[in-house]
């Protein structure tokens, strides 16, 4: 069995995009330092879509906030960390 492997470096994961059903896309920079407001209120990921003003799925905010905290912690060792996965072409044949 042959596997196609994808290797992604930490900087490749810098931008996360949230897609709303209304068509709005919000891009978040994982390297952006939190503002004083965000530090105080624990906010990084917006709670609602700026396009339609509806709340995002409740699972999005804690997941992206957690990823941002992990990403910022890994910045101390960016050349020592890579992410690996099996490509979608390999999954189809499995």
What features would you highlight for this structure?
single chain, 94 residues, alpha+beta, 3 helices
How is the biggest beta sheet arranged?
Answer: 2 strands, antiparallel
Please estimate the helix content: 25-40%
Strand order of the largest sheet: 1-4
Alpha-carbon distance between the two ends? 8 Å
Low-confidence stretches: none
Oligomer: single chain
Number of beta-strand segments: 4
Number of helices: 3
Tell me the radius of gyration.
Answer: 16 Å
**Helix and strand element order:** EEEHHEH
Strand content: 15-25%
Please, could you describe this protein's structure?
By secondary structure, the protein is α+β, with helices and mostly antiparallel strands. The protein has one domain (13-78). The protein is 29% helix and 21% strand. It contains 3 helices and 4 strands. The chain has helices at residues 36-41, 60-74, 88-93; strands at 5-9, 15-19, 25-29, 82-86. A two-stranded antiparallel sheet has the order 1-4. The mean pLDDT is 84.
Nutshell version of this structure?
With 94 residues, this protein is an alpha+beta fold.
């Amino acid at each position: 069995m042959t596997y196609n492997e994808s290797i992604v470096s930490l900087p490749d994961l810098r931008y996360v995009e949230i897609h709303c059903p209304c068509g709005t896309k919000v891009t978040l920079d994982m390297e952006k330092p939190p503002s004083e407001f965000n530090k105080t209120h624990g906010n990084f990921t917006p709670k609602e879509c700026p396009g339609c003003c509806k709340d995002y799925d409740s699972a999005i905010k804690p997941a992206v906030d957690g990823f941002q905290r992990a990403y910022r912690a890994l910045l101390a060792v960016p050349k020592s960390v890579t992410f690996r996965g099996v490509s979608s072409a390999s999954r189809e044949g499995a």
